[in-house]
Structures are given as C-alpha cells and as structure tokens.
Amino acid sequence: MPHAPRPRVSRHVPHHVTVRVARGTWNLRSQRCFAPIRAALAAVRRRPDFRVVHFSVQHNHLHLVTEADGRRAMSNGLRALLIRVARGLNRVMRTRGRRFSDRYHEHVLATPTEVRNALRYVVGNRFVHLARWGTPADDGATDEFSSLVAADLVTAPTAWLLREGWTRAGPW
Known about the structure:
The chain has helices at residues 31-44, 71-93, 112-123, 125-132, 160-163; strands at 15-20, 50-57, 61-68, 105-108. Helix 1 (31-44) packs antiparallel against helix 2 (71-93). The protein is built from five helices and four strands; from the N terminus they run E-H-E-E-H-E-H-H-H. The chain has one domain (15-165): 2-Layer Sandwich (Alpha-Beta Plaits).
C-alpha cells in the first residue's frame, strides 16, 4: 500500500479494512489459525473507542467492518488487534517475525449504499472466492469464519449507517 495519509475517522462513519498476511503464513481458515484470531477479536472487543462490527477470515487476508471514535482510536485499535493476531499466529506456527505483509487497506463507508455493499461483500466473501475457483456453495450455508457465525466476537454498531442506515439502500 502506498504511504498516503489515512482518511479522517468519525464515530458516525464505519470503515471497511482489509489486511493481508505475509507469505509463509499458514491458511487462516484452519481451526488452529482461527483460534488466535478469535482470541484477538475477543480482547479488542473490550475497547470502548474501537469496534469490530463484522469480519470475515479468508485464507490469506481478513476483512473487517469497524467503527472508531477518531483516527487515534482506529490506529490503536487495529494495531492492538493485529499485534495480538501476529503473536498468536507465530505461537501456533512456532516461528517469529512479521505476519502481515504491509499496511492495511481502509475504505470509508460514507453512504447507506456503500455500507450495504460492504456488508454483503464482507459476510459473503467466502462464497465469492468459491465461485471464482469453480466450487459450488451449499444453499443457505454460512461462513464459519465470519461474524455471521461467531457473533460473540463483534460489537453492536453505534453509527446510524451500520445500525439501520444501510437498510434504506434497497434490498440485500
């Protein structure tokens, strides 16, 4: 990612964050690698100024829909989450070093339509990947490595856009 200035953060506007892991990191969609991600999300859930509202774990990246009270809260919350994930993955892999390839990608979700599309993308991302690989998905299946199944790891949204605004953007 280019080192451009980060966008402003307001507690009223959610962000879609994508984080890629470094080469050599095991598949995140295994139970042994998901365990430290689960623990990190549970620990970050206690932060009052940073919230992970939805997430999806793919084999080499994470998608997060977040809220924060300001730029410092967003940066510190993501740093806390990613450090915990990296340390946990290094413990599981019995290795040391960086687990994330570069800076995270962050997109401000400023309209109800953007929020709806981001939510669809994040919680349905596994099925997009399966379709791209030519693997059919079960009808009615949910992704066990997402906030749809692991709802205990996320925080209820406080921003209007995530609470109800996205429902005004039209059908899911």
